[in-house]
């Protein structure tokens, strides 16, 4: 060895070599690397230090074969009703980020996919039967409620972001969309609005419930408030032109818009500005989601806030319970009205 050259510890190839170096059995090494209390702390720390020094990493594939687990959770976005919508949608990305953080903190990798069910109900069966996943998280129910129910009857480690229906099989975490729709309509009605346009695609269960809640609040108000439904694309390519057409054809007496998502609301705000319509002086505007982006609009967007971070934690906790063989009930999150400048 030349002068000044550092000695590099020999890289160990397997647990047997590390056990020989540590002077213990391979079983003790395995338990120490898994940080099991069966091995006293001093021995655990010594073995772990030797493993780091010699660049030893246990064979994860072999470990997973022994346990029958893959260490991977599938995160799937089903787009049955809006196949042109992208994973880059701000709501998807926000929830996905929180899910990824929660899974990684618990030692899981995630596999992301975007499902386009089309006319086939087998898309979810292919996911859960792939043998590559310990469990599946679905972001949204789209128009696939029946398919999800069918698979949930036989596949337990499945948790869905969406709307809860009484008596359903699948475990769901999500905001009470009906209550959120009521909050939005009640706020607009309290402002004196009597002709409200609803922008959203009600083929998706969550958005359908937001409209239903708004209409219920209007009927209960006794004010004669009318809510007109304008089906709005969720894909970025078509959303703008759809909203522009709806703004041009809606009743001139319309004095408020309830958008089914913050993304729809932000696109609407821009198009109203282009038409010289002042918000909220000429027309009030309320979104739904409470995304961080909603604070960046001018004027700032009034919205119905969903606890997306808390929902992600609840989804992962429910999934891990199910992977472990326990049951986990659905979680319904309370929406919150965030009043800013647009209404």
TrEMBL record:
InterPro entries given in the database record: HTH_LacI, LacI/GalR-like_sensor, Lambda_DNA-bd_dom_sf, Peripla_BP_I
Matching entries from Pfam families are given as: LacI (PF00356), Peripla_BP_3 (PF13377)
Gene3D superfamilies reported for this sequence: 3.40.50.2300, lambda repressor-like DNA-binding domains
Tell me yes or no: is Cell wall biogenesis/degradation among this UniProt entry's keywords: no
Q: Which residues form the HTH lacI-type domain?
A: 13-67
Which keywords has UniProt assigned to this entry?
DNA-binding, Transcription, Transcription regulation
Instruction: Output this protein's name.
Output: LacI family DNA-binding transcriptional regulator
Native organism is Novosphingobium piscinae
């Amino acid at each position: 060895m030349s002068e000044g050259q550092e000695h590099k510890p020999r890289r160990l190839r397997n647990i047997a070599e590390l056990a020989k170096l540590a002077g213990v059995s391979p079983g003790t090494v395995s338990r120490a690397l898994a940080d099991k209390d069966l091995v006293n702390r001093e021995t655990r720390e010594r073995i772990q230090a030797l493993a780091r020094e010699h660049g030893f990493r246990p064979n994860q594939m072999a470990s997973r074969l022994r346990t029958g687990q893959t260490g991977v959770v599938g995160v799937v976005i089903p787009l049955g009703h809006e196949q042109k919508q992208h994973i880059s949608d701000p709501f998807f990305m926000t929830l996905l980020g929180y899910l990824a953080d929660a899974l990684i903190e618990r030692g899981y990798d995630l596999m992301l996919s975007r499902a386009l069910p089309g006319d086939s109900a087998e898309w979810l069966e292919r996911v859960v039967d792939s043998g590559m996943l310990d469990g599946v998280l679905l972001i949204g129910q789209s128009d696939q409620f029946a398919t999800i129910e069918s698979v949930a009857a036989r596949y337990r480690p499945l948790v869905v972001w969406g709307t809860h229906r009484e008596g359903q099989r699948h475990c769901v975490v999500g905001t009470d969309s009906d209550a959120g729709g009521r909050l939005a309509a009640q706020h607009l009605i309290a402002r004196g609005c009597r002709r409200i346009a609803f922008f959203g695609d009600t083929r998706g269960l969550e958005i359908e419930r937001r409209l239903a809640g708004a209409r219920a609040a209007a009927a209960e108000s006794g004010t004669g408030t009318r809510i007109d439904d304008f089906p709005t694309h969720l894909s970025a390519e078509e959303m703008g032109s759809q909203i522009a057409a709806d703004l041009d054809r809606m009743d001139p007496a319309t004095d408020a818009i309830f958008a089914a998502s913050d993304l729809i609301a932000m696109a609407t705000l821009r198009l109203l500005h282009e038409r010289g319509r002042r918000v909220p002086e000429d027309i009030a505007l309320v979104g739904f989601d409470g995304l961080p982006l909603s604070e960046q609009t001018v004027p700032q967007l009034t919205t119905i806030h969903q606890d997306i971070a808390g929902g992600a934690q609840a989804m992962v906790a429910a999934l891990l319970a199910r992977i472990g063989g326990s049951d986990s009930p659905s979680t319904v999150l309370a929406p919150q009205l965030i009043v800013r400048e647009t209404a």
